[in-house]
Amino acid sequence: MSLHSSRRLFLAAMGALTLAVAGCSQSDELTDINGIDLSTANLGKSFELTDTEGNTRTLKDFDGKAVMIFFGFTQCPDVCPTALYRATEVKQMLGDDADKLQVLFITVDPERDTPEILKSYVTAFDPGFIGLYGDLDRTAKTARDFKVYYEKVPTASSYTIDHTALSYLYDTKGRLRLALRHTQTADEYAADIRKVLAAN
What we know:
Number of strands: 10
CATH class: Alpha Beta
Number of domains: 1
Pfam families: SCO1-SenC
GO molecular function, one term: metal ion binding
Number of helices: 5
CATH architecture: 3-Layer(aba) Sandwich
Strand content: 15-25%
Protein name: SCO family protein
Keywords: Copper, Disulfide bond, Metal-binding, Signal
Radius of gyration: 16 Å
Helix content: 25-40%
Organism: Corticimicrobacter populi
């Protein structure tokens, strides 16, 4: 992904999130965080996608756990593997609380990311990570619900995909609380996740 594309995606994502939280109550906001507080945002209420074992999954399936969601695709050259590797680091940093975090990877490339490819990709980082997919319409709807941008970009032989590079964090009660920036360190991710766990 080019620097220009990355900047364009970042600005688009920030604009969408600003609109999502505009005018909302401040009473439930988190303080002293590194990410973007989405506690009162009207987005990402749930999802209905399929996991790599063929099971329909919704947010309700993960009650009692903090859930971190990243949208990407398995042929992503840098952003997606960086995000998933950082998630493995974060789980190590959480120590005894690691089991309270569930990482979900939602593909924006269901045409190429078959269940077998998706499972092999996400579990290579951590066997507990779950890959999710939908058909083209379901993928588009889920992305809209999260204000996630993605777009095919033709290459010489095929295509790549430009996409939003934020991670979304729910608390253990299924409330969306944070958008974590791709530029944050693993330490900053872990610190924000601890605050969300402590706020429940």
